Amino acid sequence: MRRRSVLVAAGTLAAALTTPLGRASAATATAAVLDRRIDRTYDGRTYTDLSAEIGTVRGLVSGTVLATFATTSRNLAMTLISASDPTRPSTDVTVCVSAGRLQFSVRDDGAVRQNHLTRTMYDDGALHTVAITVSAAGTTFHADGRPVLTVPQASFFGAVSGLTALNVARNLDSDHPGGEWFHTGTIQRVAVWDRVLTPSEIAAESVRVDLADLGRVSAILNSDTPAVWLTTGDSITHGALWTNGWRSYPEHFQERVRWELGKPKNSDFVLDTGVSGCTTNDLVARFADRVAAFRPRVVSIMLGTNDVATAATGPAVYRANLRRLVDQVRALPDGAVPLLQTPNPVDPNLWPGRASLGDYVRIMREVAAELDVVLVDHHAHWLDSNGGAVPLSLLGDGLHPNQRGHLLLAKKMIKDLRIHDPASRVCGLTIP
Questions:
Q1: Rounded mean pLDDT of 64-74?
Q2: How many Å apart are CA 414 and CA 121, to the nearest integer?
Q3: CA separation for the pair 252, 229 (Å, rounded)
Q4: Which residue in 268, 241, 234, 237 sits closest to 251, CA to CA?
Q5: DSSP 390-431
Q6: Which one of 21, 31, 102, 217 is least enclosed by Cβ atoms within 10 Å?
Q7: What is the mean predicted confidence (pLDDT) over 257-261?
């Protein structure tokens, strides 16, 4: 079976997701049977041959395989580590980055023992660590120290006979004697353990550790179980008037999740309960009917633009309300994940009563950091993208995002939640 058919069958080190989305761990794992610190950049033709060490992994029926990498291109399949029988076609155990997604496959003479991909993507040029654990209970993908996908299949190196080749950055079989699925980018390290590492051990072996809530969001995106995503806020989230007939940012996000991620994510639901004029006081008072009633798995809150102009929600009240809302979301029966999104900047010349919005944005950042909440910081993104000035071309009236502003909000949200794909219609959309 060729890689393309396998894919179809399966259906920055910089600022990207480090703060506030990332944290580091201090625990340490022990005694890998294979541990090579490669620290090499591959150009899509080069590779590292570790076949002399194939005996360390051959026959393992359970354990952990780990790789730390960064990509510089997006290819259909790029190998991180592969064990194979080069005398037979489609006989291999591979960990790949496939069109941005993490992939783990086990094949023997074309028979697929398991083949799974994440929907979340890791080809943003930053360093990531993937760890695959396999035991009798199944297979779990860990990305940046957090579990993001679990499947019942339990095949590992021992499920494939005749493994004699072990390669970093390429796969080798009889149909491709020179190799295939070459990696483009950096691979820092590959390692294999003959046991399933604990979550704290995997975190210690990762170059960074995502917030637990970001891992939970990734797991929801990678799960086939239907989920309700709820966005709430004021007129910006509502998408009232100023989109000029185009989609609002929750609608763009819905298209990305419910259509572009494919079945069965089309059974997820993305609900928008934003109400024009809403403040955090309003949402606290109406939490039951605007949030809890829908039993969401993820709750996005973007508020502050009205709070700053409302005497009843000064900075101290705003801070207390945000903390209360986060606690209320986490206390929902299904253990929902809170997501805070800063409001976009506004033109203080047209809206002088909201000139101190940046102070409220700072409070939201502080609350997110204190409570380990995933934060999508649109306010900083808009200013940073425009030399520190408010990008008036993205606003309909100096305050509300127009259609271009809503698209930028959506793309930032999509990117920070690791489902950005430039090949998608949503992510590639431009508005003239």
A1: 97
A2: 11
A3: 13
A4: 237
A5: --GGGBSSSSSB-HHHHHHHHHHHHHHTT---TTSTTTT---
A6: 31
A7: 98
Structure-block tokens of residue 147: 């579990």
Helix/strand/coil for 386: coil
How far apart, in whole angstroms, are the C-alpha atoms of residue 85 and residue 160?
9
Q: Check residue 334 and give its pLDDT.
A: 83
CB burial of 294-317 (b: ≥16 within 10 Å; e: otherwise) equals: bebbbbbbbbbbbbbbbeebeeeb
| 95, 67 contact by CB (below 8 A) | yes
Please state which of the ranges 20-24, 117-121, 292-296, 320-324 shows the lowest mean pLDDT: 20-24
Check whether 29 has a pLDDT greater than 90.
no
Asked whether residue 368 falls in the same domain as residue 302, the answer is yes
User: For the chain, how many structural domains are there in total?
Assistant: 2
C-alpha 318/C-alpha 309 separation (Å) is 12
Looking at 208, 243, 261, the residue that finishes a domain is: 208
- Tokens found for residue 430: 């431009």
Mean pLDDT calculated for residue range 62-76:
96
Q: Do 342 and 380 lie in a common domain?
A: yes
Q: For residue 331, what are the contacts with CB-CB under 8 A and spacing of at least 6?
A: none
Q: Which runs of consecutive H residues, i.e. helices, occur in 241-393?
A: 249-254, 280-285, 287-290, 315-330, 357-371, 378-384
Taking all residues of the chain, what is their mean pLDDT, rounded to a whole number? 93
- pLDDT band for 22, please (50, 70, 90 cuts): very low
Same-domain status, 41 and 95: yes
Residues 1-11 have a mean pLDDT of 34
Torsion of the alpha carbons at 207, 16, 356 and 403, rounded to the nearest 10: -150
Residue 316 is assigned to a structural domain of this protein: yes
The residue-averaged pLDDT of 150-178 equals 96
pLDDT of 5 above 50: no
Residue 30's pLDDT band (cuts 50, 70, 90) = low
Distance CA 201, CA 363 (A): 34
Interhelix angle 315-330/357-371, nearest 10 degrees: 40
CB 273 within 8 A of CB 234: no
Locate 149 and state its tokens: 């996908």
Please give the residue range of the domain that contains residue 380. Answer: 219-416
Nearest 10 degrees: Cα torsion 117, 122, 261, 111: -20
Strand, helix or coil for residue 233: strand
Q: Are residues 188 and 240 in the same domain?
A: no
- Flag whether 431 is in a domain: no
pLDDT of residue 179: 96
